[in-house]
Amino acid sequence: MPTITVGGLATGLDTNTMIEQLVALERRSVDLIVERRVAVSDQQTAYQSLNTKLLALKGALSDMRDPTKFLVKSATSSNESVLTVSAGDGATSGTTTITVSALAKAAIATSGVGKSASTDTIASGSGTFEFRLGSGSTQTVNIDATTTLSDLATAINDLSAGVTASVVNLGTSASPDYRLQIVSNDTGASNDITIVNDDTDISITTTQNASDASFTVSGFATALSRESNTFDDVIPGVTVTLNTTGTAVVTVSNDVSAISSSIQDLVDKFNDIVNFVSSESLVTQDTESSDRETTIGPLAGDGTARGIVERLHDLIASEVSGLSGSYSSLSQVGIKTERDGTLTFDSSKLSSAVASDAVSVRELFAGTSSVDGAADRLYDYVNGLTQTGGIVDLREDALSDQIESLDDQIESAERAVDAFEANLRATFANLEVLISGLQAQSTFLLNTLLRQG
Q1: Which residue has the higher pLDDT, 425 or 397?
Q2: Which of 179, 226, 237, 404 could crosslink 90 through cysteines, CB 3.0-4.6 Å?
Q3: pLDDT greater than 50 at residue 6
């Protein structure tokens, strides 16, 4: 139940207001600590955001420092109806002609006798249906007079033997003709289906033998074969998918668009850091209001954040020494530092550089076996900042310690203010009692004198 205090009954003073004002003055010390805690908390939040942005920059640099991934390749087919291609790691520029003479096929076994429904039985008594995939072991399904066409397909699939069985209606809804079809899951001659035993009455036989794809490749005198129509071991780093017979020319070249995209991503994430530190370091004054309040950003005057940005700029601007190629600085391939500290990227300049000396461009970013490239140096620096025990981690820990200390100070100051208020109220209460007692004595004496007079 709240305490109700009524002040000034004896003295006539507004003691409650006086106490509130005195306590408010005393609480100013608490408010100052709270304001400091808010500022430190905002600074900690800013560092957490900065760390996130640094990690994003680290991610953008990850593939750029890998020589096998920096020069992204693209592969094209002159006739995609014959074959399609995609380039991956290890692809090298050049052209290759492929002539497809046969596609790889799966094995197919079908029933020669149809049924009017998938629920019709397929045997007159007990027996087995047995088959083998390639050189594998014989697979057995037990059947009897109750086994239906659908039951047989389900039992074959339950074997997980590398084939898929299904029931297909070769007829119409008015005149159905349901047949069993068994298809090998993989193509290639090693996946042929052999019917070992058939005690059904639907006469299951192999109707299509499995076969390998056959094709010729420029530079090879003899034809090649593969069990699958998709393979990646003929043209280094290129996956080929055969679609039909015919001839197509495969061209592998540097994908300048993809390289530009990765560099633009790096520039964007670099600028995100620069703009963030700049915006969080602003000190502004509200000239519109009468009190002209000043707002101080959480990173204003923070030397650590400013030092991080300055070091990033140094790494971007400095040359990569020790390279023997045509390029040794990022400005030569289109990356420029503007007056506000942000970067701009001219993709046309990169295109010219890649066309002139692609290997040198790669070495500029990804380095060589003995020289770190620009991406290596940036990555190592950012990794050092963001790892456990790094500058950012230590700064966040220090701010956490400050917040914890300020919380303790606030708690202690609050107790002191509460004690101060309690003491004031006790003092004024005692004053009221004293004045009330004096007033009572005065009234008694006055009445006594009046009676005696």
Answers
A1: 397
A2: 237
A3: no
